[in-house]
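> example.struct
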């Protein structure tokens, strides 16, 4: 199948837009490759420090002829998704030795859980933790002792930050190893219902806690299709995972076999072998287009609209909101996974999963097949699925058809014709909206605005019974420069209750929403942000606002709007406590949300 014309056009546009920065990036990568294995340039003293604690591996390291894997780990046991990584380094060392190589934990990176910090002050550090992770991983690899690298990370900002670091160390191969989702617990729709009942005062906190604990109940990624699982999808579509690795549950023989196979593959693709695959060549324009298509086909998290531009920029590639919107228009939605449906990622995987979906998208020309991946040449490798046969890991042809068409459909019969991400432009700025879970009759809302400057004020107004008519809830001064752009996920149950009461409601914000948000229309990432004098700072209570996802517009319908001066608010409360003092530089240097809200590139 020839490449879809829109996919080809968008790819060519990205290549042309990025030509200068990408060529400079590749020149830097080639220079690092040509200088040879990094350890050859270390002094004996340098190397003695690096190998002093390596015991039986010390001799192999000192000889510098065996490849050495640098492991960057985001392990902690506060994140259920990352808890399984505790024992990965030993599995990797064992597999490396069997392959005639060595492995060292180069360093750890922070990994915070947005589920823990939702609605809390700590969430104001969350987005910028991506940049800290990229820097931390770079510090780990800066010792220059490594011939290849393995990254252990799953969740929201962690994978994007690790990809940014892998792109900066472009001359090293980079294999990403996931931990997999926790087994299915209480259904996500039941959890969401109880959250709404709690918000409405119909059940107590004891019932809410019971349901939450039944949903998040063991090691592994949360099973809804939010940012963490969107990250895992992305790593397969971009060729940084082994095929079929994303959604194998933790602490199983297949999961361990995939971890060991990832270590072996990291050795095979070094410059010391015959299949040298530096990360900078995997992370090209085609890989990023494949990732965007995967995001749209799966109905993935809007947070990736922030992370993908930052990841691409680290590889010398410039993405724009137009690229996402145009690819969304031609990419059919093939999956219904909560919040876009009732199934979780385990059900999705069982129905055929990413392998089936990649095969379908390749058949209709929506993916570049000619990409380099850590598994080898061509994305068709990712239509296979891993199996254990007599204790040996093998890859076999994946499901040729969907095993549950309520969860996963072929490209010829999708759930909807487009991926559901729309860009919005108008007198209120430039934003995005995800409509894959929004009912068609709710995609155009025109109503008076209520203006708020934090989530708590919206909650207080709700509890006071102030929302009695159709309303556009505007929560401003939530952008990266104002307070670090925290997720506003705590608004989801409140707005869903209002919607269920028969009101037409929408959210407009220069902040962001959780990857688990869905059925309430939300115009997010609005730029320029209010703190930078953007149009949202001119809005007043009662202004008529129109959010039109069909037309792609975001407007205020007041004749005097342009003549108004933007309001200024005291943001000093966002600068103190829970470590926020240390993030002032990030807030001051953050780019706009439309470019990834990055502060370090």
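> example.seq
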């Amino acid at each position: 199948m020839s490449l879809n014309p829109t996919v080809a056009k968008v790819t060519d546009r990205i290549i042309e837009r990025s030509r200068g920065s990408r060529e400079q990036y590749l020149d830097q990568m080639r220079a690092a490759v040509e200088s040879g294995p990094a350890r050859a340039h270390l002094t004996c003293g340098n190397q003695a420090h690096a190998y002093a604690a390596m015991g039986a591996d010390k001799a192999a390291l000192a000889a510098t002829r065996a490849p050495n894997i640098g492991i960057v780990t985001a392990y902690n046991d506060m994140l259920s998704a990352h808890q399984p990584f505790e024992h990965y380094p030993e599995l990797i060392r064992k597999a490396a030795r069997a392959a005639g190589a060595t492995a060292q934990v180069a360093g750890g990176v922070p990994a915070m859980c947005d589920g823990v910090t939702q609605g809390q002050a700590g969430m104001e550090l969350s987005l910028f933790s991506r940049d800290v992770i990229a820097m931390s991983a770079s510090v780990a690899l800066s010792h220059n002792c490594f011939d290849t690298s393995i990254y252990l990370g799953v969740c929201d900002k962690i994978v994007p930050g690790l990809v940014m670091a892998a792109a900066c160390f472009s001359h090293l191969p980079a294999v990403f190893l996931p931990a997999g989702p926790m087994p299915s617990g209480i259904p996500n729709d039941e959890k969401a219902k109880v959250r709404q009942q709690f918000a409405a005062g119909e059940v107590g906190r004891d019932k809410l806690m019971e349901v939450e604990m039944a949903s998040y109940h063991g090691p592994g990624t949360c099973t809804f299709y939010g940012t963490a699982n969107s990250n895992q999808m992305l790593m397969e579509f971009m060729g940084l995972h082994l095929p079929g690795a994303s959604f194998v549950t933790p602490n199983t023989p297949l999961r361990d076999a995939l971890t060991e196979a990832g270590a072996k593959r990291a050795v095979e693709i070094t410059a010391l072998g015959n299949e040298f695959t530096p990360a900078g060549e995997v992370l090209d324009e085609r890989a990023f287009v494949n990732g965007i298509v995967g995001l749209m086909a799966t109905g993935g998290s809007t947070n990736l609209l922030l992370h993908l531009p930052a990841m691409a920029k680290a590889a010398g590639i410039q993405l724009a909101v137009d690229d996402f919107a145009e690819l969304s228009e031609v990419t059919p939605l093939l999956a219904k996974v909560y919040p876009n449906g009732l199934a979780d990622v385990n059900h999705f995987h069982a129905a055929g999963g990413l392998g089936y979906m990649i095969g379908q998208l390749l058949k209709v020309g929506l993916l570049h097949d000619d990409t380099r991946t850590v598994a080898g040449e061509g994305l068709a490798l990712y239509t296979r699925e891993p199996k254990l046969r007599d204790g040996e890991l093998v890859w076999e042809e994946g499901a040729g058809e969907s095993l549950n068409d309520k969860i996963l459909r072929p490209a010829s019969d999708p759930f909807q014709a487009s991926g559901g991400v729309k860009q919005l432009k108008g007198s209120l700025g430039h934003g995005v909206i995800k409509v894959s879970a929004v009912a068609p009759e709710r995609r155009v809302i025109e109503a008076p605005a209520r203006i708020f400057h934090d989530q708590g004020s919206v909650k207080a107004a709700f509890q006071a019974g102030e929302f009695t008519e159709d309303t556009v809830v505007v929560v401003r001064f939530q952008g990266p420069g104002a307070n670090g752009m925290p997720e506003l996920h705590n608004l989801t149950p409140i707005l869903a209750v209002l919607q269920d009461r028969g009101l037409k409601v929408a959210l407009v914000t220069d902040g962001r929403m959780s990857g688990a948000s869905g059925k309430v229309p939300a115009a997010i990432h609005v730029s320029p942000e209010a703190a930078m004098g953007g149009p949202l700072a001119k809005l007043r209570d009662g202004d008529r606002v129109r959010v039109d996802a069909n037309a792609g517009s975001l407007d205020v319908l007041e004749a005097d709007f342009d003549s108004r001066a933007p309001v200024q608010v005291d943001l000093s409360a966002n600068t103190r406590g829970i470590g926020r003092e240390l993030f002032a530089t990030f807030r001051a240097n953050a780019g706009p949300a439309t470019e990834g809200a990055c502060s370090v590139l």
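> remarks
The first strand starts at residue 68 and ends at 73.
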